[in-house]
Amino acid sequence: MQPPRITFRHILNSVLKVFKLEKGVLYTLRELSLRPGKAIRTYLLVDRSQMQDPIKFLFIMVALAALAFVHVDLKNTSASFQAGLNEGKKAAEASVQMTDEQRGKMEEQFEAIDENATEAEDFMANNYQFMLIFSIPFSAFWSFVHFRRKQWNAAEHLVINAYIFGYQSFLFALIRAAGYWLTPKSLDVDAEAMIVYLIASLVYSVWGYLGIFDLKAGKRIPLRGILLSLWVIFLSMLTYMISFSVILAVVVYIQ
After folding, report:
1. In 10 A of CB 245, how many CB atoms?
2. What is the 3-state secondary structure (H, E, C) of 77-118?
3. Is the dihedral of CA 38, 40, 44, 47 positive or negative?
4. Dist CA 255 CA 253 (whole Å)
């Protein structure tokens, strides 16, 4: 008996099976777009067969953001840093009488600082979304602390925040792609897209928390729930940034 003829449908199914994406991704995106709170609650409590696994979904969306050439435009930051570096160098030269040898050593030190800053800038620009993955445990910790009276345990808080961050990565790719095609070339595409993304991701996080943790309490505008969600997001990003800065400082110091 001959096997069935090869068709494009067969090839597509084979490709999807390689990445285990034959079901769930589009459904997950749709549900997280329309009703994130209900979708995640359903995954955790009722049915896990329809939604994509949270870890797979997270890395798929982060990879999608990378493939969409999403990066942070740090040109203005770099220019500001360089201007400050030059001012510091001039101030040092003006305040102290230096020999040519001392001036040469100072030039080498400033060049080393500039080189390290450029390397850090390039790394952050090319790995922005991947770096932010490490903020998920911080978000999970603070949501667990503030919403501990709810039914979710610590592991479930990780799943909740993985789904939210995964969808934010999808927004990142979508907004960056739209900005590239729709924004006039005279404008700073990356800066405009970044501002829109930050606002959209903040709104989405609050919307997700309100639904998942049932913070609406029957109110049309649940002000307390919104403020509590914003507070959790603020603490998450603050502790993540502090921890990342400390680790980066230690690495630079060791090197």
Report:
1. 10
2. HHHHHHHHHHHHHHHHHHHCCCCHHHHHHHHHHHHHHHHHHH
3. positive
4. 5
Q: Kindly report the CA angle at 243 between 89 and 148, in degrees rounded to 5?
A: 150
What one-character DSSP code corresponds to residue 6?
A: P
- Note the pLDDT tens digit of each residue in 155-192: 999 999 999 999 999 998 888 878 767 665 545 556 67
First and final CA of the chain: distance in angstroms?
66
Taking the model in full, what pTM does it have? 0.72
78: CB partners within 8 A, 6+ apart = 117, 118, 121
Q: What rounded mean pLDDT belongs to the chain?
A: 77
Strand (E) or helix (H) holding 249 = helix 223-254
Q: Please, are residues 164 and 204 in contact by the beta-carbon 8 Å criterion?
A: yes
